[in-house]
Amino acid sequence: MKRLTQTLIIAALSGAIVAGCVKVKTGQTSEEVLESNKVRARQVRIQWAEQIRDASPKETAQLVKTHIDSVSAWYIRYGYKVADEWHKGNQAKGEAIDGAEMRKNVDAWIAVQKPILNAYEDNLEFGISKIKQSGEFSPETMELFDRFAEQFYTNRSTVFYPHENVEFYESALIEIQRVTESLSRQLEQELKKY
Questions:
Q1: CA-angle at 136, arms to 130 and 137, nearest 5°
Q2: pLDDT classification of 168: cutoffs 50, 70, 90
Q3: Cα–Cα–Cα angle for 88, 89, 93, rounded to 5 degrees
Q4: How far apart are CA 61 and CA 55, in angstroms?
Q5: Which of 48, 50, 87, 138 maximizes the CB count within 10 A of its CB?
Q6: CB of 106 closer than 8 Å to CB of 75
Q7: Structural domain boundaries enclosing 174
Q8: Would 5 be classed as within a structural domain?
Q9: Cα(113)–Cα(134) distance, rounded to whole angstroms?
Q10: For the whole model, what pTM was predicted?
Q11: pLDDT 10s digits, 68-102
Q12: Three-state secondary-structure class, residue 136
């Protein structure tokens, strides 16, 4: 029951944090949003560290898997929003917008969200290190965790660094979603052994 409660807490926390990354017109300057996100990122790290500290190795493994699942799903959803905007931009402009131009738009959003995005990475790395330190998992399980963590970074770079054209970008989104879901299922099965 404790594991389920922790898993639900991390899922809710990830959802709340991710929801906080959605661009909302608040009247705040970029600097104010950036400062607010720095505070939020510190809170994210503290809450994650508290959860990991109190968790068994198996619970930590589940928390890390849920973290990767949640944040990756959000990255991919955001990617599809970028693709929709890209299509609208192409139609409005009457010609195809290239990846470099679209990347400038995404870069502007990332600039104020960077503290939170970095907190997600820090949390992942901290969780993975705790799992490795526990010595509870086989080399095969750890290899699968490493592949899933690597996919997390692939998801981030694919979504936030568009290139080529919108069709190429959408194909890349489909592929990272397929690979992420496959690795998630594999890791879920692997963790049932413990």
A1: 95
A2: very high
A3: 120
A4: 9
A5: 48
A6: no
A7: 28-191
A8: no
A9: 32
A10: 0.81
A11: 999 999 999 999 999 999 999 999 999 999 999 99
A12: coil
Cα–Cα distance measured from residue 145 to residue 65, given in angstroms and rounded to the nearest whole number: 8
CB 99 within 8 A of CB 168: yes
- Greatest CA separation for the chain: 57
3-state class of 45 per DSSP?
Answer: helix
- Distance between CA atoms of 160 and 106, rounded to whole angstroms? 6
Other residues' Cβ atoms within 10 Å of the Cβ of residue 125:
12
Token pair for residue 56? 């068994």
Q: CA-CA distances (angstroms) from residue 7 to 58, 63, 64, 133?
A: 11, 6, 10, 21
In-domain check, residue 107: yes
Instruction: Report DSSP state, residue 54.
Output: T
Q: Helix crossing, 57-93 with 99-134: angle to 10°?
A: 180
Establish if 9 belongs to a structural domain.
Answer: no
Q: Give the phi and the psi of residue 121 in degrees, each rounded to 5.
A: -65, -45
Sign of the Cα pseudo-torsion (174, 179, 185, 188, in order): negative
CA distance 124 to 131: 11
User: What DSSP assignment string belongs to 32-83?
Assistant: HHHHHHHHHHHHHHHHHHHHHHTS-HHHHHHHHHHHHHHHHHHHHHHHHHHH
How many domains are there within the chain? Answer: 1
Query: Residue 6: inside a domain, yes or no?
Result: no
